[in-house]
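Structure ticket #2291
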Amino acid sequence: MLRINETLVGDKNMAPHDGPDGHTHDWVEPKDLLTRSGYGEFKAPKSSYDIWMEEQEIPIYRHIGIDKVQNLPLKPWKMMGANATFVQLFGTEGMWGCHVMEVPGAGATIPVKHIYEQQYFVVEGRGSTEVWEEGQEDKAHVFEWQKGSLWSIPMNAKYRIVNASSSPALLLGGNTAPNVMNQFDNPEFIFNCPYNFRDRFDPNREDYYKPSDEILADPIRGLAMTQTNIVPDIVDCELPLDNRRSPGYRRIEPHMTDNNFYLWIGQHEPGRYSKGHAHGSAAILICIKGKGYTYTWPAKYGETPWKDGNEDKVLRQDYEPVGMVSAAPMSGDWYHQHFGMSDGPFRLTAWFGPHHPGRTIKRPGENATDYGAIDVRDGGTAIGYDIEDPYLRKEFEEGLDSYGIKTRMESELYERKVN
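Resolution: structure written out below.
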């Protein structure tokens, strides 16, 4: 068996540090004290996860986003026994993995297990999932899901997804496969590890997949969270008031199967839009209700790119359920701002992988800031409505007007509030 990042080139295996042609080359010493060693510019090599994706022989979609994942082409994925495509939006490379999978009508996936974390959102269909600890098949946990459900698989537990309908079921999956594959580079270990993570999954716990809607405070930032391994319907479930992104904004963080995979569900009220804010790559916004668009641009171009003549540096993605966009697509800090174009709420779920924005590496006990919600004038990265680019408000109101929707962005929202 080839390791994930070994590809046969002639009679030689390509190791992680070999060149694109599968060969090492003689090192050339600098000619003088003013000449640097190395090529200077080079093509980024494929990661172990990149090579593994190619070996699966299904499509790989790479872009800033997509209007709806239902439009992606699918091909048979032998490992899962379903049709699928990988989704690698710009900025998530090495951060976390994503795929869209279609389970055939009245069919089921092939049982698998792996030491990376995995979660699924149901785009279309209904069915059930069986989860068990290998060797204890008689204690399998079985739970049902429907369109709009979100659920997580415990690390290294074996599972099978069963479609209860005669029509195909479409699922959007997120996982930490790139993190694990790029670290261990050994599929035998990743997919056949005998260790049971009992701290995450107790096969004797009967209520493991019993939904819970109890609202708790996230211990890191004090935001609303819930501890549950399945949310029956994230599209229409109640969300607690948050107000961090826009007036009336609602939000909750589901913490699932003790995973490090971070996500939240948020909703903007009709006729209102989010403040621009900046952070690094990893976050993918997924539209699950309403429709709208996102703007994203490098923070180095400032808070008013249109006004400053840098509109060509701004990227836009329009989407509807279930569309996706990368909030910071090219690494580093990018501003991004989200606008709903519906007469109803604009609801999104954001997936970050294991890159929790509230867990920036610092010395233990050192003060940290919820910088994405703090105004740039107060040390954060949020752009106050009163200093944002005027183009954004004008375009938003014109867009709503074209749909016969009235804005709820009252004029006082564009006045600076001093604490």
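Closing remark: The helical segments are 48-55, 177-184, 187-192, 390-402.
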